[in-house]
Structures are given as C-alpha cells and as structure tokens.
Prior knowledge:
By secondary structure, the chain is mainly alpha-helical. It has helices spanning 6-12, 16-38, 40-46, 51-66, 69-78, 84-101, 105-132, 138-167, 176-202, 215-251, 255-283, 285-294, 297-302, 308-323, 325-336, 341-369, 372-379.
Amino acid sequence: MTEQNPSKAIIEKTVFPILFALxxxxxxxxxxxxxxxxxxxxxxxxxxxxxxQIGLITLTFQLAASLLQPFVGLYTDKKPQPYSLAVxxxxxxIGLITLSQSTHFYTMLISVALIGVGSSIFHPEASxxxxxxxxxxxxxxxxxxxxGGNAGSSLGPLLAAWIIVPYGQFSVVWFSIIALLxxxxxxxxxxxxxxxxxxxxxxxxxxxxxxxxxxxxxxxxVVILLLLIFSKYFYMASLTSYFTFYLINKFDVSVQTSQxxxxxxxxxxxxxxxxxxxxxxxxxxxYVIWASILGTAPFALLLPHANLFWxxxxxxxxxxxxxSAFSAILVYAQELxxxxxxxxxxxxxxxxxxxxxxxxxxxxxLADSTSIEYVFNICAFLPLIGLLTGFLPNIETKKK
Length: 400
C-alpha cells in the first residue's frame, strides 16, 4: 500500500522545508533588489542626478522585472524549469557586480536592468514552486514566500545605512556573496521540484477550485484586482523610492536616520505579510483584500500632516495592513483561473513591479515640478481605490 502513494504524498503534503528555502531565497533576492532604492541618496549626490533620473532608474529596473514575468509564467506552465531560479539569480549576480562599478547614469540603467531580469525569472517560477509545496494551504504558502521577500526588502535600507553609506558605492559588490548563497539554495529547491514534476506527470494534480464564472466575469474581476495592485504599488512606490527624501526635506534628518525610518516601514511590511494568506484561507480572501487596502486609507491620509514622531508611528500600521493584500490577491486570482498558476503569478508580480516602476518615474517627475511634500499629499488618497473590492465575486462559495 505504501508503495502506491508517493506521488500523491508529494503533491498533497505541505513541504515546509521547501517553503522555508523559497522564502529565504526570496529574502536574499529582495535584499539585493532593495539595495537599489537604498543607495539613491548616495548616487543622487555623487552623480548630481535629478529626481526624474532617480525615477528612471527605478522604472528601468521595474520594467525589466515585470515585462518578462507573464511570459516566463506562461512558458513554465507548459514546461516547468526546475533550475530556472538559479539561472535567474545568476543574472542578478552579474547586475550587482556591474552596479558596484557603475560611474555613469547609463551603466547604472544596464546594471539594474540585469537585476530586474533575474527577478523576472525568479518570481513566477518560485511562486509556482510555493504553490506546489503548499499541500492545499495556498494562502499560507504564498504568505510564507512573500514574508521572505518583504523581510529582504526591509533589510536593504538598514544594510545601506551600515555598509554602503560609510563605505561607498563599491561596497555593493560585497553583497554578491548573498547571490551566490541563493544560487546554492535554489539548486537544492530545483532538485526537489524536478522530483515533484515527475510525480505529477504520473498522476496529474487536480485543481481544488472549480471555475464556475463566465469569461466576462473573470476578465472583469482580473481588471479589478489589477486596479487594486495599482493602488497598492503606486502608494508603495512613493514610500520605497521617496520616503527618505521626504524625511530629509521636511524634517532635516540625516541620510542614516532616514534609512532607519525606511527600514521601520519595510519591516512593518514584512511583519504584515504573513497575516493575509492564512487569514484568507480561513475567512475568505475577499475580506482580507477589503481590510488590507481600504484599511490603510485613514493612516495614509494622516501621514502628510504628522510630525516626525507620528510619522514613525503611522508607517507601522500602513506597512502591516497594506502588506497583507498581495498574497490574498494572488491566491484569489489563481483560484479564479485554475490551472494557470505560473501565468497568474507572472502577470500579477509583473504588473506589481511595473506599477512600482511607472509610479516611481511619474512621482519623481511630479516631485521635480512641485515638491516631495506635494507628492505625499496626493498619494495619500490612493488606498481609497480599495473600495473597488466590493465588485469582486465571493469565490470561496464555488469550492467543492
């Protein structure tokens, strides 16, 4: 009897070592990515860059990290690539080394584009592997995976304050050790996933969600979800790319102090990430989406009018509440379109990255023509787009 069930076990059991390995790899990947906005105050001063140029660096990275993702996801839905994650991290490694050596604006753009390509390969297939290792606990799996990424994003500003600010741009090359460690871990994950793919080919996994919605309803729901991603990541772009400048300009704090405030915000994002998926597994993802995006609005509206102390207080609930949205949105979309895990992950990760990049570029242009404080006053209204959640169907009622 025991010899007849290995493939079923590998498909249905939650494989926590793999989830933790993916989460830790996500942490390493996003730690590297977060070095890009973390060094903005340094390169802006050293190379006399404008806010528009800073926004263009972010746009280049985000577009490289977003445009390929749906295509990677669509391809790997048909032909899984167990070792693609290690290959993607190789691109990140090359981009990291070249960024540390860049002395011109255009070489910086090439460097961040290489890091973006690595990210575009990493995210959809890593999300698929987390889905495969979930054992049916999809929200939990995506939250664990996202937790690593957001924790890594929070470390960038702190590492920049400790290492890059005192030792300069060249110290970025030291983080290549992180990329090499990630390649080793992702090769191990690839070995497991190769076995999973073989087992699944012998007995195809059956989707746990039956799609009973019309094509028009699905398209409409996806558009709503993408608008919610737009509101989340445009607002996130204002904080990740320009929060340090806002603090320096309005409160005259040092670069190191501004990086610590950015770390507090990003750490709050990481802490809130783990909430959305498991809660969505229990009470329904639509309710989590409601609370996570619209619930940010009161704090976001207060932020531009707060003093330095209250800014430090407000960024904690903003980060925690806003962070719980993405895992719920992603799993909701994967259940809305069963059987297209990689495509959905690539589309939503890609769109999220794209919105962050476009948002950063547009907000940089707006900051140049007005002021950084004006940008934060305008962006405070973005979470109100969360009201669109009311148009989403209750997908949980469609489960078997």
